[in-house]
Design goal:
- It is a single chain.
- By secondary structure, this protein is an alpha/beta fold.
- The protein has a single domain, classed as Ribonuclease E inhibitor RraA/RraA-like (Glucose Oxidase, domain 1).
- Helices cover 17% and strands 33% of the residues.
- The chain has helices at 6-12, 47-53, 77-85, 100-103, and strands at residues 17-19, 25-26, 33-42, 60-66, 73-75, 90-93, 96-97, 109-112, 114-115, 128-129, 133-134, 139-140, 145-149, 152-156.
- The strands form three sheets. Strands 1, 2, 3, 4, 6, 8, 10, 13 and 14 form a nine-stranded mixed beta sheet that branches. Strands 5-7-9 form a three-stranded parallel beta sheet. Strands 11-12 form a two-stranded antiparallel ribbon.
- A hairpin with a 4-residue loop joins strand 11 (133-134) and strand 12.
- Helix 2 packs parallel to helix 3.
- The chain starts with 5 loop residues before the first helix and ends in a 6-residue tail after the last strand.
- The mean pLDDT is 95.
């Protein structure tokens, strides 16, 4: 199932992928994963993230765009554990996470910019689900497929035959 490598995907599917240039660190137990992208955009509150991970996430990867100006962690151990229990393949954020000493043992992929111990403020911003995420050099749309390993990550519009 996870016998792919992102460099091999880049070599074989160069014309069908976009290479992510958002550089992230791995924190979950699973370093390699892939799945259909589910998107969430959050200014500060991660309420929609909690709601999403409580649903069946089989073959899905949650991609969270943190848009707030103030630092806070979008994912902690409770969200990662709930996501793993509900079959999510992974969670990726351009923001921060916390509780990494626990998350490292949870059987899920978690990639983030870095760690930051402060929780979110639920009173700031509601969050949006299923929206296109604009990262300047690429737009990530719900329904695309993402492939992640320790080399980096790539996005394709459709599931690749790997």
């Amino acid at each position: 199932m996870n016998k792919f490598t992102v460099p091999d995907i880049c070599d074989e599917f160069e014309d069908k992928i976009q290479i992510g240039d958002l550089f992230l660190n791995s924190y979950g137990r699973n370093k390699k994963f892939f799945g259909e992208v589910q998107t969430a955009r959050c200014e500060h509150s991660n309420k929609v993230v909690k709601e999403l991970v409580s649903k069946n996430g089989s073959n899905k990867v949650l991609f969270i765009q943190h848009t707030g100006k103030e630092k806070c962690s979008m994912v902690g151990d409770q969200i990662a554990q709930t996501a793993a229990e509900n079959g999510w393949e992974g969670i990726i954020t351009n923001g921060y996470i916390r509780d990494i000493e626990v998350i490292k043992d949870i059987p899920i992929g978690v990639y983030a910019k870095n760690t930051y111990p402060k929780k979110t403020d639920k009173s700031i911003g509601v969050g949006e689900v299923g929206v296109a995420l604009d990262f300047e050099t690429m737009i990530i749309k719900e329904g695309a497929w993402i492939y992640v390993d320790s080399n980096g990550w790539v996005i394709s519009e459709k599931k690749l035959e790997i």
